[in-house]
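User: structure tokens for this one?
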Amino acid sequence: MKKFFIALLASLSLIGSAFAADNNILDKIIERGVIRIGFDTGYQPFEMVNKKGDYIGFDVDLAKQMAKAMGVKVEFVNTAWDGIIPALLTDKFDIIMAGMTVTPQRNLRVNFADPYIVIGQTVVLRKELAGKIKKPRDLNDAKYKLAVKLGTTGHEAAKRYFPKAEIFEFETQDDAKLEVLNGKLDAFVYDLPYNSIFASQNADRVAFLSEPFTYEPLAWAVRRGDEDFINWLNNFLRQVKGDGTYDRLYAKWFESDRWLSTLK
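Assistant:
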């Protein structure tokens, strides 16, 4: 009987090892020679398309650095936001690098590496409301109409913090902000970096409440079950933050707006 249990444990160990090897994303990436990056373009300054049709942005540059560190090529897979987690889970790409906020709900479906940046939700208003709305909480009124991007943390924040307001959902952030620019809706609720750029480009038409009213760490997401990949990503992040690469890219995309002229 003792020999039987020893043999059984050995068999289970081999099965577990075989499963782990089969589930090791890093090995698959190295064997393939390509890391596939999933994102949703249009989220400034994280992932965008320039006039030449090339992908550019903070996440794009970090992804290229990641591929270089692995010794592989990089392939970008542009995916609609509401389907980006299902696409990851069905192996359309290896990792989501798309300014995704870490939430308990998302963490039930995917694993997150350590946060690489922390942001929060902010509000861009119609210019006419600049003197009336002094804080985000002032929008919690039935007379106000808010624009949000469907499926985002801005969408969830708007429902939570402004339950009395009327919320209009849009497939893209560009469609949502356009309604505010055109004066059809009162405010756009979205992430700080994007809204900061949006407001600076349209200072004559909108007002910006720049103080975030939520705390949102952004992180890279991968399929559950591969701790080796998470370990590698966390060590990579520590390396680029320690050697100056991260600071250089942050300055390029968040402290300068020269890249705006290259966009479509």
